[in-house]
Amino acid sequence: MSMTLEEIARRSAEAMWARDDASKWLGMSLDTVGPGAATTSFTVEKHHTNGHDICHGGYIFTLADSAFAFACNSHNRIAVAQHNTITFVAPGKLGDRLTATAREIAQYGRSGICDVRVTNQDGKLIAEFRGASRTIEGKHFEE
User: Fold this and answer.
1) Is the Cβ–Cβ distance between 78 and 139 less than 8 Å?
2) For residues 11-49, b (16+ Cβ closer than 10 Å) or e, as one string?
């Protein structure tokens, strides 16, 4: 019996999340996952803030990068980042709940492109991220 695309995405995410110490250390949660899609979030705490007393851009990038990773790994093919860019639009503030929503917009051969939108709890745009992925050998689980 073959699995649905949703089941494959869920099992791939479970396998990755079990080993994703960086995302857990940041205080991140994996909120949703589906074929070519994922949502991650975290609340900005004092240790996430920089010298301007706003969320450090590296943490916002990490949040978006994790959503990107779960989206492009949702097909039970191991995918890694080739390159990523981010545009910061507004600051994340202490106490904000930041959410990164990723969606794969292209997948061709071993390459993929994924867009990630980072918003706060009010839906205000914080950053836009674009990631390029490349699949390598291996799977997250045996089908």
Assistant:
1) yes
2) bbbebbbeebeebeebebebebbbbbbbbbbbebeeebb
Angle of CA points 47, 132, 106, to nearest 5°: 125
Q: What's the whole-model pTM score?
A: 0.95
CA 38 to chain centre: 6
Amino acid found at 25: W
Q: What are the tens digits of pLDDT across the range 46-70?
A: 999 999 999 999 999 999 999 999 9
CB neighbourhood size of 57 (10 A): 14
